[in-house]
Design goal:
The complex is a heterodimer. Chain A contains eleven helices and ten strands. Helix content of chain A is 54%, strand content 15%. The relative contact order of chain A is 0.11. Chain B has three domains: 87 residues, Butyryl-Coa Dehydrogenase, subunit A, domain 1 (Orthogonal Bundle), CATH 1.10.540; 123 residues, Butyryl-CoA Dehydrogenase, subunit A, domain 2; 118 residues, Butyryl-CoA Dehydrogenase, subunit A, domain 3 (Up-down Bundle), CATH 1.20.140. In chain B, helix 5 packs antiparallel against helix 6, helix 5 packs antiparallel against helix 7 and helix 9 packs antiparallel against helix 10. The radius of gyration of chain B is 23 Å and the shape is globular. The chains are: A alpha+beta, B alpha+beta. At the A-B interface, helix 7, strand 10, helix 8, helix 9 and helix 11 of A face helix 9 and helix 12 of B.
C-alpha cells in the first residue's frame, strides 16, 4: 500500500505553492475581479506557461512534458488554493482532455502543442443557459461542418482561441472543435458569480466546425472528459477549501470577543472541526480519484464522482462558514472571504452541479453492482 | 501511488490467509458467531480463538518482545486484522485489554508485574476492563468522585464507576480514583490496576435503550488494593489515564453495518410509488452522501496505513473516524426504516429485511456517538490538537476539587 504522492510530486506541489504564494496572492484574483478590462491575469498566465504547467500531463509527442496526472493533480490543488484567475482549468482539464480523449492523431498533433505551451487557450462549451444540459435538450446544431447555436456560460469563452462544443448532430450528439476567431462566431462576456474568472456567451452562426471524435459519439466522449476533469476540479476545490480553513483558523485565533479569542468558544471550534472533517473526507476521496485518473482505472467514473461530490461539499461549507467565522467584516468587499465564496460556487457548477454528480455516482455504483 | 502490498507484506498476507483458512470459517451471509452466542458461551470460544492466534504468533505482533510481542511493524498487525475480518471468528472480549490495559501496564507496571500479567492478557486467559467513567464524570472524566485513601500497604477504594464493558466477566481492571480532594481536580488522581474479584466490588448490568446490556455499573465499598498495584506516582493518575484514553480513541473508530451498501440494496428492493426506491433522486442523493463519507474514511485509513507501512507516524486525519462513522450509522439506520414506510417500525427480525438490522441500529447508534468520546468532545479535540485553537477558559482547573460547583 502506497496511497500517497511521491517525494518528487510533493516537491512539485511545494514548489507550485511557493510560486503561487509569491505570484498570486489574493490581490491578484481581486484585481481581476474588480477590473472589467482584465478578463484574466495575463502576467500570471505567462509565468505559468513559462513553468510549462499547462503541458504537465500532455504527452511529449504533442508538445507537453508528459509527467502524468498525479503531477497535474498536485498543481491543481495549488491553483485552487491560490484561486488563480487564469484559464488553466478550461484549457487544460477540459479542452486538452477533450482533444486527448476524442481527437484524431492529426488533431492532437495540430491542437495540443499550442495548449501545452499556453500560446493557445482552449475551452469547452456545453451549457446553453439556466437548466441542466442533456443530450435530449441541446439546441446547438452541427450540420455539414457548420455550427449554429448559443452557448453560455462558456468559461474563458471571451479570451479562448479554440472551443470544443457539444452539439446536436442529426439524431445524435457530437463534439466539434471551433476556431473562435473564425467567421460566424460572436462572443460577449457574461456577468457571473465569480468575475475573477471570465465567462462568455458565444453565438455560432454557421461557424466552421471540425468534428472531434466520431459523429454521434459526442455525449460519451463528453462524459469521459468530465470524469477526468471532475478529479482535477475536485483538487482545485480541495485547495480552496483548505485555504478557507486556514483563513478561518487564523482569524479565530486573533479575533477577541468577550475578553477571549473567539476560537476558544466551542461554537467556533466545532464549526472549524466540521470544516476539517469535510476537508479530510474530500482529500481522501480526491486522492483516490487522482489514483484512478492516473491509472485509467475502471473505478474512475465512481471515484471521480465521489471526489467531485466530496470536494464540492467541502469547499462550499468552508467558504460560507469562513464568512460566518469572520462575522461582519467577512461580508465586506474588502475582506477576501467573498473571493473564495464566489469561487466555490463557480467550481461547484462548472461541469455540472452536485446533484448531477451524485446521480452519476449512484449510476456508476449500479453498473458496478450489475457487472 | 498504488494499493499493492510490498513483496514482504504480500508474503505475510498470504501466510496469514492460509493460516486463517485452515483454522476458521469464512464469513457468510448468516449472522456472525458473535451475534448467535450468549456472553458466556462467546467468551469461552473467544478465549480459545485468542490462545490459538497467540500460539501462532498473530496476537500483538507489533508489541516489543519484552512485552510479549514480536517487535514487528504495525502494518503486519493491520494486515492480520484485515484478513481476519473476512472470517467468522469470536472476537470483542479482549479489545479493551489489548487496546488500553496492555499498553498502560507495559508503560507503568514493574518488570515482575508485566511478566505476570501481559502474557495471559495476550493469550486471552485473563480479561481486562477499564474503570474511568462515573455517573458525574463522563466527558469531564477528571471530575471523577471515586475516592481512595492509603491504609498501611493498601489503598481503600469507595465510590461508583459506570459504562464498564465486560466488568462481570473481567478478571482485572484499570481504575482511576481521587486520593486528595483538596488538590485541583487533575492533580488529585491516582491510577491502579485491581482484581475484579476483590471483596466489596458489586457489579450491576445497565439496560440500554436497545434492550441490550453491554455495560455495567461497578460499586466499590471499602475495596482494598495493594499499593504495589499503583501505576504511576501518587497524583499522576490523570497523565496515566490520558495515555490510555488516546489509545481508546484510536481503537474505537469503526461503526458496524448498515452502511451505504446495505441501504442501497434495501432501496433496490423497496418500492416508492410503485417504483424501486433507488430510482428516486432524493434517495440517490442520500446514498451518495453516505458513499462519500464511507469512502472518505476508507481512503483516510489507507493514508494512515501508508504512513505506518513506511514506518512513519500517521497524520492527524485519523482523528475524524468516529465523529463521521457514528452519526452516519444513525442516519443510515433511520433512513432504512423510512424506506420501509409504515412497516419500518417493526423490530421482529423474522418479519423484516436484513433481520431488522436497520431497526436494531436505530436503537443502538445513539450510544456510538457517546462511547469513547462524544461527538462534541471529539470536535474539541480536533479543534485544539489538530487545528491549534486555544483551549476552553476553565473555571475548574486551578481551584481545589472540593470547591468546584457540582450542581447538587
Amino acid at each position: 500500500m502506497n496511497f500517497d504522492f511521491s517525494d518528487a510530486q510533493k516537491a512539485l506541489k511545494q514548489q507550485t505553492r511557493d510560486f503561487l504564494r509569491a505570484a498570486c496572492d489574493t490581490t491578484v484574483p481581486r484585481r481581476v475581479l474588480e477590473d472589467v478590462d482584465e478578463p484574466f491575469a495575463r502576467d500570471l498566465w505567462r509565468q505559468i506557461c513559462a513553468n510549462e504547467s499547462p503541458g504537465i500531463a500532455i504527452p511529449e509527442e504533442y508538445g507537453g512534458i508528459g509527467f502524468g496526472y498525479l503531477e497535474l493533480c498536485v498543481v491543481a490543488e495549488e491553483m485552487g488554493r491560490a484561486i488563480a484567475p487564469i484559464p488553466f482549468s478550461s484549457s487544460v482539464y477540459l479542452a486538452a482532455e477533450a482533444i486527448l480523449q476524442g481527437g484524431s492523431e492529426v488533431q492532437k498533433e495540430r491542437l495540443l502543442p499550442g495548449l501545452a505551451s499556453g500560446e493557445s487557450i482552449g475551452t469547452f462549451a456545453l451549457s446553453e443557459g439556466p437548466g441542466q444540459a442533456t443530450a435530449a435538450n441541446l439546441q446547438a446544431t452541427l450540420r455539414d461542418g457548420r455550427l449554429s447555436g448559443t452557448k453560455m456560460p462558456v468559461p474563458d469563452g471571451d479570451v479562448a482561441d479554440l472551443c470544443v462544443v457539444v452539439a446536436r448532430d442529426g439524431e445524435g450528439v457530437s463534439l466539434a472543435v471551433v476556431d473562435l476567431a473564425s467567421e460566424g462566431v460572436s462572443r460577449e462576456p457574461v456577468d457571473t458569480l465569480d468575475p475573477s474568472r471570465s465567462h462568455a456567451r458565444i453565438t455560432f452562426d454557421g461557424a466552421e466546425a471540425e468534428l472531434l471524435g466520431g459523429a454521434g459519439q459526442g455525449w460519451a466522449v463528453k462524459d469521459a472528459v468530465f470524469d477526468r476533469a471532475a478529479v482535477l476540479f475536485a483538487m482545485e476545490q480541495l485547495g480552496g477549501a483548505d485555504a478557507c480553513l486556514q483563513m478561518a483558523i487564523g482569524y479565530a485565533k486573533g479575533r477577541y470577543a468577550f475578553g477571549r479569542p473567539i476560537g476558544s468558544f466551542q461554537a467556533i471550534k466545532h464549526k472549524l472541526a466540521d470544516m476539517y472533517i469535510k476537508n479530510e473526507l474530500a482529500r481522501a476521496n480526491c486522492y483516490y480519484g487522482a489514483w484512478a485518473l492516473s491509472t485509467d482505472a475502471p473505478e474512475l467514473p465512481v471515484a471521480a464522482a465521489a471526489a467531485r461530490v466530496a470536494a464540492t461539499q467541502a469547499f462550499h461549507f468552508a467558504s460560507k462558514e469562513n464568512i460566518q467565522t469572520h462575522g461582519g467584516i467577512g461580508f465586506t468587499w474588502e475582506s477576501d472571504c467573498h473571493l473564495y465564496y464566489r469561487r466555490s460556487k463557480l467550481l461547484a457548477l462548472s461541469i455540472g452541479s452536485e446533484r448531477v454528480w451524485k446521480d452519476r455516482l449512484i449510476s456508476g455504483l449500479e453498473r458496478q453492482e450489475a457487472a | 501511488m498504488d494499493f499493492n502490498d510490498t513483496p514482504e507484506q504480500a508474503a505475510y498476507r498470504a501466510e496469514v490467509r492460509a493460516w486463517l483458512g485452515a483454522n476458521a470459517e469464512p464469513r457468510k451471509d448468516r449472522p456472525s458467531v458473535n451475534r448467535r452466542l450468549d456472553a458466556e458461551e462467546g467468551l469461552k470460544l473467544a478465549k480459545a480463538w485468542q490462545a490459538k492466534k497467540a500460539d501462532a504468533g498473530y496476537a500483538c505482533r507489533h508489541w516489543p518482545v519484552a512485552h510479549g510481542g514480536q517487535d514487528r511493524p504495525m502494518i503486519e498487525t493491520i494486515i492480520y486484522d484485515q484478513e481476519e475480518a473476512n472470517f467468522d471468528v469470536p472476537t470483542g472480549f479482549f479489545s479493551i485489554g489489548l487496546g488500553m490495559c496492555g499498553p498502560v501496564m507495559a508503560q507503568y507496571a514493574t518488570q515482575e508485574q508485566q511478566a505476570r500479567f501481559i502474557p495471559p492478557l495476550i493469550r486471552g486467559e485473563e480479561v481486562w476492563c477499564q474503570l474511568f467513567s462515573e455517573p458525574a464524570a463522563g466527558s469531564d472524566v477528571a471530575g471523577l468522585r471515586t475516592r481512595c485513601h492509603r491504609d498501611g500497604d493498601d489503598w481503600v477504594v469507595n465510590g461508583q464507576k459506570v459504562w464498564t464493558s465486560g466488568a462481570h466477566y473481567s478478571d482485572w481492571g484499570i481504575l482511576v480514583a481521587r486520593h486528595d480532594s483538596s488538590l485541583p481536580k487533575h492533580k488529585g488522581l491516582t491510577f491502579f490496576f485491581i482484581d475484579m474479584k476483590s471483596p466489596g466490588i458489586d457489579i450491576k448490568p445497565i439496560k440500554q435503550i436497545n434492550g441490550g446490556s453491554n455495560f455495567n455499573e461497578v460499586f466499590f465499598t471499602n475495596v482494598r488494593v495493594p499499593d504495589s498495584q499503583r501505576l504511576g506516582a501518587i497524583g499522576e493518575g490523570w497523565q496515566v489515564a490520558i495515555t490510555t484514553l488516546m489509545n481508546e480513541r484510536l481503537a474505537v473508530g469503526d461503526a458496524p453495518p448498515p452502511d451505504f451498501r446495505e441501504v442501497m440494496k434495501l432501496a433496490a428492493a423497496c418500492k416508492l410509488d410503485g417504483r424501486p426506491a433507488l430510482e428516486d433522486s432524493s434517495v440517490r442523493e442520500k446514498i451518495a452522501d453516505w458513499y462519500v463519507e464511507a469512502m472518505g474514511m476508507k481512503h483516510t485509513k489507507a493514508r494512515t496505513m501508508t504512513a505506518l507501512s513506511q514506518g512513519k507516524v500517521p497524520g492527524p486525519e485519523n482523528s475524524i473516524g468516529k465523529v463521521v462513522s457514528a452519526p452516519k450509522l444513525q442516519s443510515v439506520s433511520s433512513f432504512g426504516a423510512d424506506l420501509m414506510d409504515m412497516g419500518g417500525v417493526i423490530t421482529d427480525p423474522s418479519l423484516m429485511p436484513s433481520d431488522a438490522l436497520f431497526q436494531q441500529s436505530f436503537l443502538y447508534s445513539p450510544g456510538l456517538r457517546i462511547a469513547g468520546g462524544t461527538d462534541e468532545i471529539l470536535r474539541n479535540i480536533i479543534a485544539e490538537r489538530v487545528l491549534g485553537l486555544p483551549g476552553e477558559i476553565r473555571v475548574d482547573r486551578d481551584v481545589p476539587y472540593s470547591d468546584i460547583p457540582t450542581g447538587s
